TrEMBL record:
Keywords: GTPase activation, Metal-binding, Zinc, Zinc-finger. PANTHER family: RAS GTPASE-ACTIVATING PROTEIN 4-RELATED, RAS GTPASE-ACTIVATING PROTEINS. The lineage of its organism: Eukaryota, Metazoa, Chordata, Craniata, Vertebrata. It comes from Cricetulus griseus (Chinese hamster). This is RAS p21 protein activator 4. InterPro entries: C2_dom, C2_domain_sf, PH-like_dom_sf, PH_domain, Ras_GTPase, RASA4_PH, RasGAP_dom, Rho_GTPase_activation_prot.
Length: 754
């Protein structure tokens, strides 16, 4: 059994943002933080106060997370980026919206007293005395404090307030993971309602100290418990007056929290077997359950259900058969060939998900290099005469402005070259297309020919509606591209004909060859840290190499085409975590902790080019090593330099670590390894939500009362009765787990007061 939490995030757009640049505009982008940990950065939209992003993400998290915050920033090329405002959604807020939080919300000003993070380790005791009891507070350590200084760290100390007295710890310089191990005692006032306040501060020599967070402890509860020790999350200072929202603009978001308890695999086998029996080859006609699932699924969640079913059958090796069943259902209710897959049907949504799951890596491999070249060239392109920007051209001293005609002609040449390159890459990629995609298209092609055998329907749908009669440009200024587009239509039709021209024997041969290959989970250039020399004269640098991560190992080579050298075996990975920026004076650095052949812990430091690439690599490494038995629970976010760790200043190199690992924080990708139990749990949860509709359908089919439902009958009635029994058994299994013994996780009796 495992508890899973995930966030579906869609950052739509913003409006009425304030101007941060001298030009009277801004260059906004969004940073998404979960418990103050940056996990997502959107693209920058230049020169606008009403940016549209439309970016979607799926984030997997531990169920213990507290809040997700969206920071709208203004990008600056020569100085630090400006913070425009933020929106913060707590876990409780998201949980109160089962269908998801959606809509516009005002940006609020970022208040330093609220920008707190991290936890503090306290030991609290009520010590009996001869005259009166005493309150003993031991301040042990803290972790993941907010960096308040320019060096990427803080100089933290702690103030303890109780009954009019204040005590302070020593200051730990340049650390966000300080250790104090200091104890203070206070006279305990019996029956007093006064709380114990523990505040963390960043010490500054010449300016005011910065607030890092606080913990307020209920003393009456402590007196009942007598003692308590644990990690307490630092809270913002609610006593400070919140600044007004002002006119910082608004942000449109769609955020949905999903919590699932995933049972052991054996619990889901009856459900999976029942669904697989519906789509396995040999069944006479379409099954009964899949049409019922489509009938009882609302349009708003049909895409999610389609993706879940597709992944479930893909994991069972039945994706092609599942889609073939949907093809037959779709064709059975379609009278015009040109309207196929135009409706919001389960078939169209499943086909869309299938192409993403099975074809995303192929698409990136074929089109990625061409798109990269487009961005690298950075050529100005504009065909609309009303939007042309005339620029100077020529050598120094011989500048002359381009004419509008020159700009339009140059833009047309550039666009034609890009279109030709894209079409060429696609049309050469028949053999590179995944076998299961080609076989599925072949199956669809055959089914359509059976349903619409007339010659006029040989081409089911015109490629992107670009047949000769309708391919005329909607805008006159797009006319220069029409010859290239018409030629591309011919090429794409030929490509599709070759794509579906695959026999079953060739399909099997290609699948066997593919099974022998180790497919990369993620690959790309990274910078590896190298140290030269020893002692005080040692120097360090980062060298660029090409890395490839598979389900077997992390390897590297000088370039993408050169021979790869095995670097770290997958089974030896113990953690993949971020590194403090101050450690190397560089951002976006991660560390991979692994065991060498002798079993000794080793660490390699790798630098990424941006925060998104960093989180994608961390996600990939965590997902492929999730079943390793030697994963660490803690690590050092700094480096061991000289005779101590840069993060917590401990001098023992083998120290367990000063921060907890984040192995369960990952970003979902379309090419993620399939999680069979999770997909089964998701489809169970959906079916449970429409159980009433399924029972009503069963009563209509059988004429029986709800109490008479049994897994015996004929046809759809029999299958539906079996499904209802399976759902009932799964519901009982979930209930028994919820009613079982409590978790062994530490339970804190103290209540934080706000």
């Amino acid at each position: 059994m495992a508890k899973r939490s995930s966030l579906s995030i869609r950052i739509v757009e913003a409006k009425s943002l304030p101007a941060k640049d001298l030009s009277g505009s801004s260059d906004p982008y969004c940073i998404v933080k979960v418990d103050n940990e940056p996990i997502i950065r959107t693209a920058t939209v230049w020169k606008t106060l009403c940016p549209f992003w439309g970016e979607e993400y799926q984030v997997h998290l531990p169920p213990t997370f507290h809040a997700v915050a969206f920071y709208v920033m203004d990008e600056d090329a020569l100085s630090r980026d400006d913070v425009i405002g933020k929106v913060c959604l707590t876990k409780d807020t998201l949980a109160s919206h089962p269908k998801g939080f959606s809509g516009w919300t005002h940006l609020i000003e970022v208040d330093p007293n609220e920008e707190v993070q991290g936890e503090i380790h306290l030991r609290l005791e009520v010590v009996p005395g001869t005259r009166a009891s005493r309150l003993r507070c031991s301040v042990l350590e803290a972790r993941d404090l907010a960096p308040k200084d320019r060096n990427g760290a803080s100089d933290p100390f702690v103030r303890v307030h109780y009954n009019g007295r204040t005590r302070e710890t020593s200051v730990v310089k340049k650390s966000c993971f300080p250790r104090w191990n200091e104890t203070f005692e206070f006279d305990l006032e019996e029956g007093s309602a006064e709380a114990l306040s523990v505040e963390a501060w960043d010490w500054d020599l010449v300016s005011r100290n910065d607030f890092l967070g606080k913990v307020v402890v209920n003393i009456q509860r402590l007196c009942s418990a007598q003692q308590e020790e644990g990690w307490f999350r630092l809270q913002p200072d609610q006593s400070k007056s919140r600044r007004g929202e002002g006119n910082l603009g608004s942000l449109q978001l769609e955020v949905r929290l999903r919590d699932d308890t995933v049972l052991p695999s054996v619990c889901y086998q009856p459900l999976v077997q029942l669904l697989c029996r519906e789509v396995k080859p040999g069944n006479q006609g379409p099954g009964h359950l899949i049409p019922l699932i489509e009938e009882t699924t609302s349009a708003e969640c049909r895409q999610e259900v389609a993706t879940t079913l597709l992944k479930l059958f893909l994991g069972q090796g039945l994706a092609k058969d599942f889609l073939d069943l949907l093809f037959r259902l779709e064709l059975g209710r379609t009278s015009e060939a040109n309207t196929l897959f135009r409706s919001n049907s389960l078939a169209s949504k499943s086909m869309e998900s299938f192409l993403k799951v099975a074809g995303m890596r192929y698409l990136h491999g074929i089109l990625g290099p061409v798109i990269d070249r487009v961005f690298e060239e950075k050529k100005y392109v504009e065909l609309d005469p009303s939007k042309v920007e005339v620029k100077d051209v020529g050598c120094s001293g011989l500048h002359r402005p381009q004419t509008e005609a020159e700009v339009l002609e140059q833009s047309a040449r550039t666009l034609r070259a890009h279109v030709v390159a894209l079409l060429s890459a696609i049309c050469r990629s028949v053999r590179a297309c995944p076998v299961v995609v080609r076989a599925t298209f072949r199956q669809l092609f055959q089914r359509v020919q059976e349903r619409f055998p007339s010659a006029q329907h040989q081409v089911v749908q015109n490629v992107g509606n670009m047949d000769t009669p309708v391919s005329r440009a909607k805008e006159a200024w797009m006319e220069p591209l029409q010859p290239t587009v018409r030629q591309g239509v011919v090429q794409l039709k030929d490509f599709i004909a070759k794509l579906v021209d695959i026999e079953e024997k060739e399909e099997l041969d290609l699948q066997r060859a593919l099974n022998l290959q180790v497919q990369p989970v993620k690959e790309g250039p990274l910078f590896i840290h190298r140290t030269k020399g020893k002692g005080p004269l040692a120097s360090s640098s980062f060298k660029k190499l090409y890395f490839s991560l598979t389900t077997e190992a992390l390897s590297f080579s000088k370039t993408s085409g050169s021979k790869k050298s095995a670097f770290i075996k997958l089974a030896s990975i113990r953690a993949a975590e971020k590194v403090e920026e101050k450690s190397f004076g560089s951002s976006h650095v991660m560390q991979v902790i692994y065991a060498d052949e002798a079993g000794r812990a080793q660490t390699v430091y790798l630098q990424c080019k941006c925060v998104n690439e960093l989180n994608q690599w961390l996600s990939a490494l965590r997902k492929v090593s999730t079943n390793n038995t030697s994963l660490l629970g803690s690590y050092h976010p700094g480096v061991f330099r000289g005779d101590k760790w840069s993060c917590c200043h401990q001098k023992d190199k083998t120290d367990l670590g000063c921060d907890k690992t984040h192995s369960r924080v990952t970003l979902q990708e379309w090419n993620d390894p399939l999680d069979h139990d999770l997909e089964a749990q998701l489809i169970y949860r959906h079916l449970l939500g429409v159980e009433a509709a399924l029972r009503e359908k069963h009563r209509l089919l059988s004429g029986e009362t709800e109490a008479d439902i049994s897994p015996t009958g004929s046809g759809g009635e029999d299958t539906l009765a079996q499904l209802l029994c399976v759902l009932q058994n799964l519901q009982e299994a979930h209930s028994s787990i919820l009613a079982g013994p409590p978790s062994r996780e530490p339970h804190h009796l103290l209540e934080l007061q706000t």
